[in-house]
Design brief:
Layout: H1 6-19, H2 30-40, H3 43-50, H4 57-67, E1 86-88, E2 91-93, E3 97-99, H5 112-123, E4 127-129, H6 137-144, E5 149-153, H7 159-171, E6 177-180, H8 190-195, H9 207-210, H10 213-221, H11 234-246, H12 251-255, H13 259-270, H14 280-287, E7 292-297, H15 300-308, E8 313-316, H16 330-341, E9 347-350, H17 356-364, E10 369-372, H18 374-405
Parallel strand pairs: 3-10, 4-5, 5-6, 6-7, 7-8, 8-9, 9-10
Antiparallel strand pairs: 1-2
Helix pairs in contact: 1-18, 2-18, 5-6, 5-18, 10-13, 11-13, 15-16, 17-18
């Protein structure tokens, strides 16, 4: 899609279709989109996707931070032609938008990561492939075709698994490696806890691991669990069937094998490393020539350390409020990080984006581009690939129209002077 007047094109298409009684494939208004997705999704899927940590205060803080900012439009500027494109790591992107890494997408739609890859390919926007994907990265890459892709790395306790993931990310043509820092342990996610539901314990969302040769070696070397097994319950039987269905091979054969359960236990053992420190980044730099982007930076002191350790980019993020309850809103953290970085590396933004106007606000505060998460998952739940594509296209269209109505002709012209003082 051309990024010249994309907003007007999308808007006109919707209104023209309305003459024939057709409405958008998914709701355009963010709260309506969320409500429709909640009605469609299962209880456990909704809790996992929409839920945050503790009392949900950080989820709310992300939105409150946007609500405190106000755009001040300028007038009588020639904005007939606009450019929403940005350059990141040597590639010109048509818009400053990326599909954020979201795990266990099978909870939202049976086509999972394949559907998102088709949406990303249609828009030529980067998909950040999750370590917790429901589909191996090689299969996602084939669906993406020539569309850009990044890989998000959860740093495993096992170095061989880390090395293998990095090698695979390189082999599929990733433009960057996104190291998520804020999930070395899972946050206190009250919605999931109330349902006693962790998808990984059922073999869901661990396809990157079960398709990985280094991880499979750990599984095959694992000693069988000792001691008597508890008496099976209907729920336990369903969980074992889920493990068998998600492990490579035929489900019927896997039901007779100890490997699917061993894979889940191995994953839970090696998922992420809490002993990780800044010095470990040197090993990763030696291991790969891919740009290294750190996701989860909130404190300006950590931004300074990131620069000292030679990283190539930062994502200011609080994991959508899913990790620390009562944490600073991601947008509130952005300006101080941008000030420390001072243009030396790209600063991306994540957590709280719900609209194109939000994108303008984040860029005005110094973000180079933004990662969008929950909204396109809601679209995915409602209409698969078409729903995810439509949501991101709506965000892109509103970004373009907000630029036009604010007297801005390109993303480069969006700056802090576009916002009212807080």
């Amino acid at each position: 899609m051309s990024n010249d007047a994309v907003g007007r094109a999308v808007q006109s298409r919707i209104y023209r279709a309305g003459v024939f009684g057709r409405r958008p494939v998914v709701p355009v208004e963010p709260s309506a989109l969320e409500a429709a997705a909640r009605a469609r999704m299962s209880e456990v899927a909704w809790a996992y996707v929409a839920g945050g940590a503790g009392r949900q205060r950080t989820v709310q803080a992300n939105r409150d931070a946007f609500d405190r900012r106000r755009i001040v439009p300028r007038t009588l500027v020639d904005v007939e032609h606009r450019d929403t494109s940005v350059r990141l790591f040597g590639r010109r992107l048509p818009a400053p938008l990326l599909f954020a890494p979201i795990g266990v997408l099978e909870l939202a739609h049976r086509d999972a990561d394949h559907a998102v890859a088709r949406a990303a390919r249609a828009l030529d926007l980067p998909m950040v492939i999750s370590s917790q994907a429901s589909v191996p990265m090689e299969d996602v890459a084939r669906t993406l075709g020539e569309a850009p892709r990044w890989f998000q790395l959860y740093w495993s306790k096992d170095d061989d698994v880390v090395d293998s993931f990095v090698s695979r990310a390189e082999a599929i043509g990733s433009d960057a490696l996104v190291v998520t820092l804020d999930t070395h342990v899972l946050g206190w996610r009250t919605h999931d806890l109330d349902l006693a539901y962790l998808p990984f314990a059922r073999g869901e969302g661990i396809a990157q691991y079960t398709s990985d040769p280094a991880f499979r070696r750990l599984v095959e070397a694992r000693e069988p669990s000792a001691g008597p097994s508890p008496r099976p319950t209907p729920s336990a039987v369903r969980a074992l069937h889920s493990m068998a269905r998600h492990y490579p091979g035929r489900t019927r054969d896997n039901l007779r094998s100890p490997l699917p359960r061993a894979a889940v236990e191995t994953f839970l053992d090696v998922f992420s490393r809490s002993s990780l420190t800044w010095t470990d980044l040197a090993r990763l730099r030696e291991r790969t020539s891919l740009p290294i982007v750190l996701k989860g930076i909130q404190h300006p002191g950590d931004a300074a350390l990131a620069l000292e350790h030679g990283v190539d980019g930062i994502v200011v993020s609080n994991h959508g409020g899913r990790q620390v309850d009562g944490a600073i809103g991601s947008l509130d953290a952005l300006p101080a990080v941008v000030e420390v970085v001072d243009g030396r590396i790209p600063v991306l933004f994540d957590s709280g984006i719900r609209s194109g106007a939000d994108v303008v606000t984040a860029i005005a505060l110094g973000a180079t581009a933004v990662l969008v998460g929950r909204p396109w998952v809601y679209g995915l739940a409602l209409a698969g690939a078409e729903g995810a594509r439509a949501v991101m296209q709506h965000v892109w269209a509103e970004l373009d129209l907000t630029m036009a109505l604010s007297g801005v002709r390109s993303v480069d012209e969006i700056g802090p002077d576009l916002l009212a003082p807080v």
